[in-house]
Design brief:
about 375 residues, alpha/beta, 4-stranded mixed beta sheet, about 65% helix
Length: about 375
């Protein structure tokens, strides 16, 4: 009986002219476009410069800043008032003001004064832009210190100089796409294996085919299982396509075991498909099911750590994420992909997802009513 029900589900999917295309096109488009768009690196920051010194040192600093990948010199102002007008008109995002006697103070006292003013309407852009600019200034100061040391000159400084060697573990090139790609795979699985089951039963309600199932001796558990298995298979196909694209397009290989990834995917697909079936059981129309599913998916995605780290959220939000299954699978994917974590290091996430899978699917079985 189960085999025939599964065969029926696949025939319904195949007869739908849209779904097979969606299953293959959506992962390809998401993996090719989203990692570039969902990028929190700040680049092309519009820079306004006020050079009150007009010296060799100040010109070198301006050229060094403008040659950075992060800044674009769009405005040179004579005074601070003009630069503020550039900020207000949108011509500039950040102001670098080089004070009078900049070169003289560096030579005589070993330090020079500059002022950074950032437009913080976008707080992330303002804070990161200021940090980038401060890093360039520190690097420039190190260059001057090294040049004067090699020339045998003495540049007095109140601050000792340190040689710092930075080493970034797990993402050595600080490429944000490496951080986002594993999480986007989770989002794709959620969208496909969550929305499609949510529309399945309610679609049969609208067409009337559900009545033919209701008069058969098929048990509710078998019926729900027949609805879940096709989306397990679809989920594994989508995940395999995503992993292949991450290797071909981004050169991103999982540092950990593929077997562990597919094991967690097996449980996770059961979670979101069960949630979709629960929503489908309580919905009378496809439109109602779509809106309810969209409501929950949006909240779960925003509170999953996909874009904003869970640790950066308010305490009440961190508490709510305990009941968010997306959070656990995103953590697992990033740990396995970036750190190469083994199953022993993600057992807490495994048991959490197992609890969600059991809860949603038991709920789906008991909420499905064979009489309508």
């Amino acid at each position: 009986m189960l085999i025939y029900l599964i065969e029926k589900e696949f025939k319904q999917i195949r007869r739908n002219s849209f779904l097979p295309k969606l299953i293959f096109i959506m992962p390809v488009m998401m993996m090719l476009i989203m990692p570039w768009a969902a990028n929190q690196e700040i680049k092309n920051i519009k820079l306004s410069v006020i050079d009150n010194d007009h010296s060799t040192f100040s010109e070198r600093l301006i050229h060094k800043t403008a040659s950075s990948d992060y800044f674009s010199l769009t405005d040179v102002s004579d005074n601070y008032t003009e630069a503020i007008h550039s900020i207000e008109s949108g011509k500039a995002d950040i102001i670098l003001e080089i004070q009078n006697d900049f070169e003289k103070e560096i030579i005589n006292e070993g330090e020079g004064n500059v002022m950074i003013s950032a437009n913080s309407v976008n707080g992330t852009k303002g804070s990161l832009g200021s940090s980038y600019l401060a890093s360039i200034l520190n690097d420039y100061a190190g260059e001057l210190r090294e040049e004067y040391g090699q020339a045998g000159n003495s540049v007095p400084s109140q601050v000792p100089a340190f040689n710092v060697i930075q080493q970034y573990k797990f993402n050595p090139h600080l490429d944000y796409k490496v951080f986002m790609v594993p999480a986007l795979m989770v989002m794709l699985l959620t969208m496909l294996t969550g929305f499609l089951p949510a529309l399945n039963i309610v679609g049969e309600k609208e067409t009337g085919t559900i009545e033919q199932i209701n008069v058969t001796p098929v048990k509710k558990g078998i019926f729900i299982l027949a609805k879940l298995i096709p989306y397990w298979i679809i989920g594994f196909i989508v995940l395999t396509v995503c992993i292949g694209l991450s290797v071909l397009v981004y050169g991103l290989y999982p540092s950990g075991s593929l077997l562990t990834i597919f094991l967690f995917a097996f449980i996770y697909i059961l979670v979101v498909s069960g949630m979709g079936l629960v929503i489908s059981n309580y919905s009378e129309t496809m439109q109602q099911a779509m809106f309810v599913m969209y409501f929950f998916i949006m909240i779960l995605l925003l509170m999953s750590g996909l874009f904003t780290p869970v640790s950066s959220m308010p305490q009440w939000a961190q508490t709510l994420t305990v009941i968010n299954p997306l959070k656990y699978f995103i953590q697992v994917m990033r740990l396995i992909y970036l750190k190469g974590s083994g199953f022993a290091e993600v057992t807490s996430q495994f048991f959490a997802l197992c609890c969600f899978a059991a809860a949603f699917n038991i709920w789906a079985i008991f909420s499905y009513k064979k009489s309508h």
